[in-house]
Write a sequence for this structure.
């Protein structure tokens, strides 16, 4: 009887834990959720400083540009010799931490290094809810961005389209931003 009671208690727990949102990613014990317009609205409505929020990306990004005579001006990254050309490559690994450097309209500028290297993310996609990578001159799942004052082609290492790269925050950070509210009933004379 006791075993049956334990099974009855455990089965709903297993079922509920398996129904967890598919919008959550987990790595190294950390749980990440997409940065959304709703989360941005909560930050703004609570007068919190967005520059104190830690951001991450959910994909490994590869930034590439072909070099001419300016190859001696490279500050970081890797220089490759490919098809007779020098190519400068910058890799931003999955779950790399970044900070907000500001806004450009509805796009947020995230910096992963201390240089002039913001990458813009905005509310794109079907639901216009999550902030995904913003680029220009889209071509076969790649786009162009300005990084370190130069134009780079950016692609996703493991996904078919770099536009799927989503800005993340840790779930624990997102829960800190929950707004608590209570309605005051007022006082009447004699109370």
């Amino acid at each position: 009887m006791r075993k049956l009671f334990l099974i009855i208690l455990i089965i709903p727990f297993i079922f509920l834990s398996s129904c967890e949102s598919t919008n959550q990613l987990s790595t190294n014990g950390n749980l990440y959720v997409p940065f959304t317009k709703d989360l941005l609205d909560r930050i703004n409505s609570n007068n919190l400083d967005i520059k104190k929020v830690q951001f991450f990306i959910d994909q490994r990004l590869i930034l590439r540009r072909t070099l001419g005579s300016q190859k001696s001006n490279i500050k970081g990254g890797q220089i490759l010799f490919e098809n007779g050309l020098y190519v400068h490559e910058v890799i931003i690994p999955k779950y790399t931490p970044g900070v907000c450097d500001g806004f450009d309209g509805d796009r947020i500028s995230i910096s992963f290094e201390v240089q002039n290297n913001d990458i813009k993310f905005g509310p794109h996609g079907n639901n216009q809810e999550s902030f995904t990578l913003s680029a220009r001159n889209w071509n076969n799942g790649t786009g162009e961005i300005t990084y370190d004052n130069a134009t780079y082609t950016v692609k996703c290492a493991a996904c078919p389209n770099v536009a799927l790269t989503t800005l993340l925050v840790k779930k624990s950070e997102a829960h800190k931003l929950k707004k608590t509210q209570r309605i005051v009933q007022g006082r009447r004379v004699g109370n």
Helices lie at 2-18, 37-45, 171-176. Residues 2-22 have pLDDT under 50 and may be disordered. The first helix runs from residue 2 to 18. Residues 22-176 form one domain.
